[in-house]
Amino acid sequence: VVSSVNIVCFSQIINPDVCNTNNASKFILLGLSQDQELQQVCFVLFLLFYVVIILGNLLIIITIKLSERLNSPMYFFLRYLSFVDICYSSVTAPKLIADFLVERKTISFVGCIAQLFVVHFFGCTEIFLLMVMAYDRYIAICKPLHYMTIMNKHVCSWMVVASWAGAFVHSMVQTLLTMQLPFCGPNEIDHYFCDVHPLLKLACTDTYIVNVIVVDNSGMISLSCLVVLVVSYVVILVSLKTCSSKGRLKALSICASHITVVILFFGPCIFIYMRPSTPSEDKMVTVFYTISTPMLNPLIYTLRNEVKNAMKKLWSREVIVGGKLKM
Questions:
Q1: Best-predicted range by mean pLDDT among 56-65, 80-89, 301-310?
Q2: What distance in Å separates the CA atoms of residue 192 and residue 92, rounded to the nearest whole number?
Q3: What is the CATH number of domain 5-326?
Q4: 61-80 tens-digit pLDDT
Q5: Segment 26-50, tens digit of pLDDT
Q6: 316, 284, 311, 317: which is closest to 299 by C-alpha?
Q7: Which 3 state secondary structure label does DSSP give 114?
Q8: Distance between CA atoms of 254 and 200, rounded to whole angstroms?
Q9: Separate counts of helices (H) and strands (E) for the chain
Q10: What is the per-residue DSSP string for 193-257?
């Protein structure tokens, strides 16, 4: 594949030889399967999944925005989590769905690098938001009298900004270190989107150091954040010993949905980035945290009584009839 050298020349800042050795202007994605009949089934299935992701998370965002009862910091963070889920799945799902209908699945070098950046940006943002939500639960349960003072709007806003900023730094490191590699050989990516593992395999140079920095970066962020989350919930559970049985049940119900989401998201991430890559297993597990988890999050959080009650009250109160809003 003949390259347009200009698309990677600004990476000379890191490696001056890149513009002379990179001759991959596009990559071929092998996708989830090469079976045509299976791809047709997957097209319908994943299109349905994506519609559910969009509608489910939009429902959460709109309900929290319009409901006066869901104005606590927990729902402030949940609204942003739903927004990130929509963006995160939208980076990979539309391309995956469209590729089920074509025989040759291609993506440009620039598009591949952009996809790599955005996937890690929103993925890391979700990790940091889940940590912030765990901290919010810790303050709410362990320091209830100081909750509104500590978790005021100003602090919550800065926590969200810090999550975005931390994710941006992480993603920039991943992207810059990957794109400076020379790609002068095979251009087939054994995946359905551009990620670090499959791209490193295509580089025509020794990638050991970059692999340690880039891949372990993602793995260690996932693992260290999970450790922090586990410790915080151990502290919460220990503090519940002094509560009444009623208070203990209420606190556990508050944490249950968040713990479930944490397990669903962090488990696959650690599996992917803390072990040697195996393409067939990686693709299946990646589907879980890029498609399944964003789809399940709205269901998990809407099981909470206050969310269900807010939805019932909001959507039963405002009914559009004949183009007019009747209360």
A1: 80-89
A2: 8
A3: 1.20.1070.10
A4: 988 888 877 888 888 999 99
A5: 899 988 888 888 998 999 999 999 9
A6: 311
A7: helix
A8: 42
A9: 12, 5
A10: S--HHHHHHH-SS--HHHHHHHHHHHHHHHHHHHHHHHHHHHHHHHHGGGS-HHHHHHHHHHHHH
CB 84 within 8 A of CB 163: no
Structure tokens at 12: 């000379």
Would you state the structure tokens that stand for residue 297, as one six-digit string? Answer: 């999050």
At 222-270, the pLDDT tens digits run 888 888 888 888 888 787 777 767 667 767 776 777 788 888 888 888 7
Q: Show me where the domains of the chain are located.
A: 5-326
The residues, ordered by sequence, that sit 6+ positions from 185 with a Cβ below 8 Å of its Cβ are 202, 204
Q: How far is CA 181 from the centre of its chain?
A: 25
DSSP secondary structure string, 4-45? -GGGGGGGGGT-TTHHHH---SEEEE--S---HHHHHHHHHH
